[in-house]
Amino acid sequence: MFGRFKLYPLLVMLACILPPSSVFAARIKDIAFFEGVRPNQITGFGLVVGLDGTGDKTTALFTLQAIANMLDKMGMQTNPATIMVKNTATVLVTAELPPFTRPGGKIDVLVSSLGDATSLQGGTLISTQLKGPDGRVYAVAQGAISLGGFSAGNAGANIVKNHQNAGKIPDGAIVERGVPLEIQGKDDIFLTLRDPDFTTSKRIADSINTSLNGSIAQPLDAGRVKIGVPSSYRNDMVSYMSRIERLDVKPDTVTKVIINERTGTIVMGENVRIATVAISHGDISIEIKTQYEISQPAALSPHGETVVAPVVDTKVNEAKSRLILLPESVTLGDVVRALNLVGVTPRDLIAILQAIKAAGALQADLEII
What we know:
By secondary structure, the chain is of the alpha+beta class. It has seven helices and 23 strands. The chain has helices spanning 8-17, 28-31, 61-73, 198-212, 237-245, 332-340, 346-358; strands at 26-27, 32-34, 40-49, 88-97, 106-113, 124-131, 137-144, 150-153, 158-161, 166-175, 188-193, 217-221, 224-228, 248-249, 256-260, 265-268, 273-274, 277-281, 284-295, 307-318, 322-326, 362-363, 365-368. It is flat and about 105 Å long.
């Protein structure tokens, strides 16, 4: 149950004391990135050894074959049918290769069980090649797995902390090949917005043009901005790109009202607007009290017994319903003030917002999570 205490006066106060939204802005590097400057996914198939009997079972045929192939490369001919795999598990190794990473650099890897192993605790990943979608090897991973938890006990009494079939190896992969990306000598560069929006794209272009005193940037669509490179920066692209990504821009987004019915959390964007609407809000509370009356037989009574008789008193209190007119609002503060007049709890406010949206008076997306 949600408490009856009201959080909305606090929201009203914050809406009144906070500065105007126009002063809030984000750096371009936080809302967009230069085209081509992005991480790349690499993947590998490997073996984890040294497990304490928690590895794959003999039914995992690909584990048997993988062990046989590994031993064959080491010069030992082995029949897969004779291999016991309880201390070994097949895993899928994944990593993210950052842009401009050079050979010799180290990156974190995530190791996930592929077979029916019960735990990777205490295991060590043996040398595993990590490949990109083009089939080329970009890194090699190896090392002890960190699970961030533990498993102890037996079948009768067992305790498990966190997930045991996936873990990380910090700096577990050495980069063997970087993704080629040349930025020097370009005539144009492009910015890609993380959340495409026509207004934000236009504001980015305007900010760049104002900073460079010229028509350098041009928004191509909601998610892409073309930026020309002056001749003075052709061989100093790092300084040019650094100057651009440090510019401030106020991003524009679709107005949303986010509702979490499980916790009663309601989050509204600054541009939430409601049309003129009337709301009738009432509340019904039911109070049930039970008292027990004891009937005691008379003294020296030949027959009789003590009887406990419950007396139930039920009261139904219906609060007086109020019809309140919410005028058309412009800011979040106005919306909060208007809804706070109704004196509702978070659960009631959720129902009211859903009703206002159904009536077509809420000018925002209502998202329930």
